Each structure stands twice: as structure tokens, then as C-alpha cells.
Amino acid sequence: MIFKKKLIVLSSILAALVLVFVLSFVIERGDRRSAAFAWLESSMLDMVDRVELNSGIWMGGDRTILRRVNNVWYVSTEFADLPVRQDRVDDLMSALSVRALYPLRASSAEASERLGLVEGSASRILVQGGAGLPLLDLLVGSPDALGREVYLRISGRREIHSGEDRFTIFTDSRPNFWYDLRLFPDAASAPASFVQQADISLPGGGEFTLRRSGGGWVIPGDEREVDTRRVDAWLRSVLEAEADDFAAAWPPSVDGSITLRLGDGTSRRIEVGPADGEENRSARISASPYMYSLTQWTVSRLFRERAYFLQ
């Protein structure tokens, strides 16, 4: 009889523990479901025309301003609006508008300070639309112990959430992370196979021409055989080349040039100026309003000597 009573008591305790476990599991799943949201609703993306990114005081406090003009994004600087990689802005908008799990972690001022979410020192993503209408002001704080998640808080609110770190790659990057430094952004519409002739004027002196002939290439006036595969690879490298930065001004003279002549009668041209004290050169591109800066390494890859193309 005593054994049966003990069995009943033990069974009751076990049943209660199972119930607590099940309830805790259900509650936890419910909490995680309720924590799934997007910081910026996708319906608002068409309104966005300005984004301000601050890296946070511990990363130097750099600020980058992105502006959208006629549906094209630029980096806004003191001197000019410079073109950006549109796909990188798309990645930022996707990170902000994707629905993901952001569990609530704390809601106290002490926690905000401890987790690096104090205004004025945290990294920040400020999204605006229309006439400066604020759409999102997100503070990005410290990473968690494993470094896979960061703590996040909407400016002016107390609630602190955590989530996968999709944001510091944008807040902690300098402006040149955003720059579109491709010399020929339209290279996809003018592939190497379209080029019929390349006129090369080397920095420091020397000129020659590469001309397509049948299925290969020749250098007019030079009877030596040209390595067709090397010419084709070089043409791709020219059309896909990227500068190292934007330049502030154009020097007074041209020191070298490459002109690619296409089968449709159009051409693509690179001009470089003399090397400065750091061996960098300013460059300008046909049909582009921007000045670029090329390192000597980049210039050496673009401006090949005649012997490079010979077998």
C-alpha cells in the first residue's frame, strides 16, 4: 500500500515536470516567433533617399552619407557626389528589411551602456525618406560573447534586442567601401570580343597598335607573331579594371593613354597623368565626369610593353 502511494506521488511529480518542460518549450518558441521582425518594412524602401552611417566612437567615428538621386545612389562628400556600387546599397537595404529573429534581451539604461548602445558612441544607421523624414534610427552596439550577434536598439527606445550581425560591415566601412571605382561600368555591354583595335601610348614614351586580324592579332609594322590569348586576357583586364580611389583634380598633362576601338564605331579611352610623389597617377576615362587615382601597380598592369604581347 505504501509502495503504491509512493508510486502515485512519483508519477505526479514526473507528470508535473513534463508539463513544465512542455510549457517552457512552447513559451520559448512563442517568444522567438514574436521576436521575428524587420527593422525597416519593405514597403518603405521606395521612400528611402538618404542613409547616414556612423562607425561608432571605438571605430573612429567615421561618417558616410549615401544619397539617392533619380534612383541612383551616390556617396555625398564635401566636394562632390561620387558613384557607389548599387549592389552594396541593395545589400544594406536587404539586411534592414529582412524578417529575422531579434529576441528582446534587456531594457535598462545600465544595459544600454554596458552593451555599447549609448547614443553618441554606438554605431548608427539613420535612414531617411522624402524631405528628411526619419524612417529608421538604429543603434548598433557590441558583439555577443561568440561574436556572431550584435546588440541593437532603436534610438529613443529602451528595448535592446540581439541578432545576427548583418550591419557592422556597413557601419564600420570607410567611404571607399561604397565607391564604384570601375573604370568602365558598361563593360558588360562592350566585352573584349567587340574590340577591334587598341592604341597604346606608354607613360614615359613609346607607342604601338594592336589590331585584330582574322582570328588573331597583329602589331602593324612588326612582323613578329602576337600571342592572341595574352591580348584577349589583357583586354578583359582593361575593361574590368578598377581605380584605387577618386582623384581631386587632373594634372596639366597626359603621360599615357589606351584607346580601345569597338566594332560599332565607339571607343573607350583611358588617359593617365604623370606620377606624383607617391607614384600614383590621376586618370580620366572617356564619357566619365570623374577623376580617378591609380597606383603604379595598377598602371603597370594596364600599360603593357610591346614585348609583353609577342610570342
Biggest sheet: strands side by side, in what order? 5-4-3-2-8-9-10-11-7
Domains, number: 2
| Low-confidence sequence ranges | 3-10, 13-33
Query: What letter string, H or E per element, gives the SSE order?
Result: HEEEEEHEEHEEEEHEEEHEEEEEH
Major pleated sheet: 9 strands, antiparallel
What is the number of beta strands?
Answer: 19
- Tell me, rounded to a whole number, the average pLDDT: 87
Shape: elongated
Approximately what portion of the residues adopt beta-strand conformation? 25-35%
How does the helix and strand content classify structurally?
alpha+beta
How many H/I helical runs?
A: 6
The helical percent reads 10-25%
Q: Could you tell me how far the N terminus lies from the C terminus, measured between alpha carbons in angstroms?
A: 102 Å
Backbone CA Rg: 29 Å
Describe this structure in words.
This protein is elongated. With 311 residues, it is an alpha+beta fold. The chain folds into 2 domains: 37-177, no CATH class; 187-309, Immunoglobulin-like (Sandwich), CATH 2.60.40. It has a 9-stranded antiparallel β-sheet with strand order 5-4-3-2-8-9-10-11-7. The chain has helices spanning 2-34, 86-97, 109-114, 168-171, 228-239, 296-302, and strands at 36-37, 48-54, 63-69, 72-76, 81-83, 100-101, 104-106, 123-129, 133-143, 149-154, 160-164, 195-201, 207-213, 216-218, 245-246, 256-262, 267-272, 281-285, 291-294.
Topology summary:
Layout: H1 2-34, E1 36-37, E2 48-54, E3 63-69, E4 72-76, E5 81-83, H2 86-97, E6 100-101, E7 104-106, H3 109-114, E8 123-129, E9 133-143, E10 149-154, E11 160-164, H4 168-171, E12 195-201, E13 207-213, E14 216-218, H5 228-239, E15 245-246, E16 256-262, E17 267-272, E18 281-285, E19 291-294, H6 296-302
Antiparallel strand pairs: 1-6, 2-3, 2-8, 3-4, 4-5, 7-11, 8-9, 9-10, 10-11, 12-13, 12-16, 13-14, 15-19, 16-17, 17-18, 18-19
